[in-house]
Structures are given as structure tokens and as C-alpha cells.
Amino acid sequence: MFHIMKPFLKITLFIALVSLAGCKEDFIDVTNPGALSTNNYPNTITDLEQLLTGVYGTQHSAGLYGHNIYGKGFYMWDHTADLSWQGTPTWIQLAQNNSQPNDGFLSETWRDSWKGVQRANTLLINIEKFRPKATQEADKKSLDLIKGQALFLRSWYYQHLITIWGESFIINNQGGDKMGVPIITEAATSLDQTQVPRATVKEVWDFIINDLKAAETLLAGKTWPGANEKHKISGWGAKAALGKAYVYTQDWTNAKTALADVVNNSGKSLVSFEVYKDMFNGKNEFNSESLVEMNLNVDMTARGNTENSMGTSIGMVLAPTYVGDNNLPAASAWSNVFPHAKNIARFGFNEGHYFKAGTTQPLATNVDPTYVTRSLQARRNKTVDPRLWVSCWQPYVDSMTVSSRKRPLSHFLDISEMDMEAWSFRKYLTIDATETEVNMANGNNILLLRLADVYLLYAETLIRTGDNATALEYINKVKRRAYGYPVNGASPVDYKSLTDATKAPDPVLKNDPLKYERWAELFGEGHWWIDVRRWQIGPQEAAYYQRIRGGAIQWEDTDYAQPIPIDEINSNVSMKQNSGY
């Protein structure tokens, strides 16, 4: 996780504080003067830094980036993935846009997002309690930096809550009065204080934006060059997130100001394609493109689906499959999900199928050699979007490392449909080992916000504010990098207009370079579902993908918002369920 202190101790201290802070003074009698209590902890800047590490650490709880958020969350709702595993009905329903209030994966994401809010709130409360003790200027500055990070992180957890469970987005000044999520800023000291109703969508976004504005002010100009601090939120990271929140709420004037500042003054730049293609696989971390990045490390002592670990187990769910000694597919880990076949075509791949016609068994000996030749030529000539192979591994063309031995990727395990394009994921997978070899705790950093995302958000803002020419240039900057051209000069692959043809075959993306570039550039990074929601393209997306292996995709307009978990409905009498559930 983060290099400052072993996670188990950090989180244990923090949970102890949360438990104590949530009790009235007469609720518990602490008679041991050496025991941890709110009377003696936190009592120093170092104590507050420990609590801050716990707030960061919540990012890779099991319900978030420790395990669920991609393969059991965003990838399902936006059809980034299809399911090899067919043994969990509610998982299949997630991918059919038919989520259920009793879904355990959703419940864990809800729980851990609120855990992050609670921990940020507890830290923010204790910062103000400690402030009178901060008499030295250095301590006052440290306190403000801690507060800025805590405010950013609270806003980050709230964005998960509102973008997943908020009843609506604000679209053309409509939807702000719909149900959002509760706004909580204090640690509850009684059961009554946990019975909090849902604020409106606008109220929640205003709260998020206010936190980000305050964070940006407190962190302005701050960078973290130290090896153990690079994961911390910088002033530019906060400004970029603020600009993104303005885009999400269609505040185009403020979005333009914030994003232009990041684009022109942050010193950030797009990395080369050679750096880009491996920066999701544990290489080239904290590079010039990164704005907000989770720092992870392989942990052989604790699996990644727990806060006690320094790694993440996302890869166990996404893990590729390879050609075993018997020439049949073999799992490199759990290997539960694979890229939806429709996504391969969306990148412009139309080289046919890897198996010879009439194949009934997924044997490596049944691969058509001319397919391999065509695929390599398409990759070399870039007639297919090169980002396909950044995001995905191609069966029988690409290889992975298993126990220090190169193995070809296979038709994805347990896919009985021999005519299906069943590739494997590549982003956030371990390159030089299997996920089981790294104890289900890979150390690949997760890029939560990067400059390519900002460029495309800025382009969208420029379109909305009447500067199509500059918008097109920023869209082209992202595309040029993908094809290996210099970012700042015209290239043969440039779009000529905002309605130019893309690689995609479907009505949503084929003549919309902005939408296509956001889809292709950020594929597998957890942003597309939010774009689907705010652009209201759910029906069109469902029509394109049509079905998953478990059945037809079922779309209703109420599917934009996930159901509030049933446990929350039962425990909070003030909580109302989203429409349609």
C-alpha cells in the first residue's frame, strides 16, 4: 500500500480511534492511562499522519480497488467485461443491467465507500481539535496539508457514492432535485444520528465541489517528491479533480478555467506510447502524465482483498488464461471475466477468428496460422487502434509468463462458444508472473486520474463553450500518442472534424471522436460507466452489446442508478430506495 508504515498497524490504530470517537464520554470508562483513547490520541502531527494513511488505505478495501470495483462493478455495468464464471446469479444480473438490492458486491462497495467517508470525517474532526496545539508555523502548514488531503479523499469517496447510487446526474440543469446520498460530516454518537436521509443530487455535488475547492486551496503548489510520499494528493491533482467534477455537473465555465489551468500550468505531459503501454502493469509509475495514483506493492504476507495488504487482488478476477501443456486453456488465477467480444470490434479489429472454421475444441493446434499473420500485420501497420493491445491480450498471438516460462494466451477458459472472440484483459495485470504467484496481491499502481483524461474533459468543455477547433486539437493529441506520433504536431491519423469516422462500428461511437477517444483511451479504467450515465446513452449501449453469456442485457432508464443495498434500507429508516428496485 503506502510506504510509511505497515498497513495492519495503521489501520488497527485508526479503527480503534474511530470506535472510541463514536462513543459518548460516559459510554466507556477508560481506566488505563496508557490505553489508546481520544484523550491521548491523536496528540501529534505524526498521529494525524497515521490517521491520514488509514484514509488513503481505504481506497483498496475489498469493496473498492482491493477487489470488487472493476470486475464486479464498473466492468459489468458498462459491459467492458463478459463473464466466464456462471456460478453467481447476482453477478450475471449486474452485467445484464439488472442489479439486485441483495447483491453482495454492491453492498461491499457501499460499505467501504462510507468507511472512507467516516475515516476522513474522523480525521477532519481531530485536525480541528488538534489545531490549538499547532503553535509552530511548520506544524500549522503540516496541518493544512493533512486537511487538504483528507478533504480530497472525502470528496473522492463521495464521488463513488453519487456516481454509482445517485438517482440522476445534473443534465441541462435538470436532475439536481433527485435523490443523492446522505451528507455526513460528523462521527455518530448515537443510533439516532445514523438515521440520515438522502440529500439531493445537487446538494451532494455542491458538497463534493466545496471539498475539492478547499483541498485545492490548501494544497496549491504542493508536490510530493519523496519516495514515500508520491501517492499523496498534489495541488494539481486536486485542481484536475475539481475540473472533472465541474464537467460532471455541466458547469462548463468553471470547468474550462480549472482544466485550462492544469493543461497549461501543471507541467504535466503525455508520456510516449512505449511508456504508456506498460504503465498499468507495474512499470513507469508516477510518470509525467499521472495526477492521482494509488501506490501499491506486491505483498506476499497478505492477499490484496484486505486493507492489511500492500497490494490488490483485482487481477485475480481479471486474470488471463493461457495454453497449458495439453494445448487446452488453463487458468492463471480465478479468471472470472474477459473482455466483452463486442469491445474487440469497437477497437477496429476485424481480422476474423483465431480458430479454423468448424473448430469444436479450444486446442492450440486448431489456430489458423493466417489469422496470426494478419493480426501481427494489423498491429504493425496500425490499421487497428493500438490501444486494443494495451488493454487486452490476444489469444495465440500474445504470451504471458507462468512460473518464469512464456506461455501463449488462449481462448478464454470455460468459454464453450468456439466462434466467440474470447481475449484476456491486460491493464492492471502482472506481466512477469501470474496473480497466484504474487499471492493475489499484485503491486501495479492504479492511475485514478491522468492527463489524457484531463485533455479529453477539456476538449468536451471547449466544445460546450464554442471552441471546436481547439477541442479537436486536444482530442487529436490523445490519438497521436496512441499511434506513436508526436503529440503537439499534425499527424496522418488526425481527426479532421468532430464528426469524423472512428474505428468503432456502432452508432454511438463511429462518428463521435470525443466519445470514442474517451472509450478507447480509458478502456478498463472505470470511467466509461460514468460517461454512459452523464451522456444518457444507456439504451444505445445496451443495444450494441445485446447480451452477455448469461443472457440478454435488459435496459430500463432506472438502471442508471444502482440499488441501495438492502442492509442499508433495513438499518436506516430514513433511507429511500432508488426507483425501479
From TrEMBL:
Coiled-coil stretches noted in the UniProt entry, renumbered to this chain: none
The source's superkingdom equals Bacteria
- Give the InterPro entries listed for this entry: SusD-like_N, SusD_RagB_dom, TPR-like_helical_dom_sf
* Keyword Membrane included in the entry's annotation: yes
Q: What is its main location?
A: membrane
Chain ranges of the SusD-like N-terminal domain: 26-246
Q: What is this protein called?
A: Putative outer membrane starch-binding protein
Organism for this UniProt entry? Larkinella arboricola
What phylogenetic lineage does the species belong to? Answer: Bacteria, Pseudomonadati, Bacteroidota, Cytophagia, Cytophagales
